[in-house]
Amino acid sequence: MARDYYGLLGVSKGASDSEIKRAYRKLARELHPDVNPDEGAQARFQEISAAYEVLSDPEKRRIVDLGGDPLESAAAGGGGFSGFGGLGDVFEAFFGGGATSRGPVGRVRPGSDSLLRMRLDLEECATGVTKQVTVDTAILCDLCHGKGTHGDSSPVTCDTCGGRGEIQTVQRSLLGQVMTSRPCPVCGGVGEVIPNPCNRCSGDGRVRARREISVKIPAGVGDGMRVRLAAQGEVGPGGGPAGDLYVEVHEKPHPVFVRDGDDLHCTVSVPMVDAALGTTVTVDAILDGPIELTIPAGTQPGAVTTLRGHGMPHLRSGVRGDLHAHIDVVVPSRLDHEDIELLRAFKERTKGTAEVRSAQNGNASAHGGGLFSRLRETFTGR
């Protein structure tokens, strides 16, 4: 039994070409794989695409109206010529048959998306920010409002293609005549020309302009993330709907903190004596200001103290990450005579203890660039 191509598009058997096109576009917007990833929707999209291909072709539609199925006929009789749609199409193409007409393209088409890059420091990424940016895009012509015509004039049918949007040429070959179709060079495939175009946009329906846009960056954005501003991109040809504007965030390196997702890392330098005895230091956090950090007695070089909930906010939930303080124990490079004597006395008192013996016999490793440089290389790769 032949497929019900009219039923697939939801139109009657006597539907006009424009009604069929409108029905297909409506269904395609709902079922296109880019919009609806469901497998059932993808299969349905293929069915309506096949139905539109058949019903938009007068010859294939005639076969449907006679009770046949042109796609099944092509598959059964095509053999090695399935790419041509069946043996009938092959003979028509080589021996002067009618070439399939694509029809004119719409003069009004959707605009392209635009991309803008914005550099933000870590504080701006943490708190969110609203900034004015300058964009240079195509906007709707304010003189003709997208019509492309001057005053009350209207487009007229292209004399070259007769409104079809394409022209056909016939060439002789060893197998006979070969007919090919290509877009009309006069109207660009639209099927219409504008004899009296708008003085401002020259018939395009849009003009280039520089404008200011307010961009709201939410708290928690990170490097490489994009913020979408709907319908703020390029206006389409003929005054078609504008595309979207994407603002891509580039995060500047911070002199103190290194970011790892929602967590922050920093290096806290502590004198050797304070690390041994214990102390309290102040860390100037991004969102919380000065925070006291307790350094326990006996803190070793490279130890990490974590402050929960003092990192970056999560982009969607707002939950804060953690702040990790990496302890860098600073050994004095210059000592006076009294300091030297005190350290020697301390060494004599602790000689033979397990802790000192482990420190004296442990493996030494050299690290260049300092602890903060190593942190940055670990979490950023720079």
Automatic annotation (TrEMBL):
Q: Which domain of life is it from?
A: Bacteria
The job of this chain, per UniProt, is described as: Participates actively in the response to hyperosmotic and heat shock by preventing the aggregation of stress-denatured proteins and by disaggregating proteins, also in an autonomous, DnaK-independent fashion. Unfolded proteins bind initially to DnaJ; upon interaction with the DnaJ-bound protein, DnaK hydrolyzes its bound ATP, resulting in the formation of a stable complex. GrpE releases ADP from DnaK; ATP binding to DnaK triggers the release of the substrate protein, thus completing the reaction cycle.
Query: Which protein is depicted?
Result: Chaperone protein DnaJ
GO BP term (any one): response to heat
Q: Which cofactor does it need?
A: Zn(2+)
**Where is the signal peptide, in residue numbers?**
none
> Which Gene Ontology cellular-component terms appear in the entry?
cytoplasm
The UniProt keywords, alphabetically, are: Chaperone, Cytoplasm, DNA replication, Metal-binding, Repeat, Stress response, Zinc, Zinc-finger
Naturally occurring in which organism (per UniProt): Mycolicibacterium vaccae ATCC 25954
Segments annotated as CXXCXGXG motif repeats: 141-148, 158-165, 184-191, 198-205
Q: How is the cofactor bound?
A: Binds 2 Zn(2+) ions per monomer.
List, alphabetically, the Pfam families matched. Answer: DnaJ (PF00226), DnaJ_C (PF01556), DnaJ_CXXCXGXG (PF00684)
Q: What is known of its domains?
A: The J domain is necessary and sufficient to stimulate DnaK ATPase activity. Zinc center 1 plays an important role in the autonomous, DnaK-independent chaperone activity of DnaJ. Zinc center 2 is essential for interaction with DnaK and for DnaJ activity.
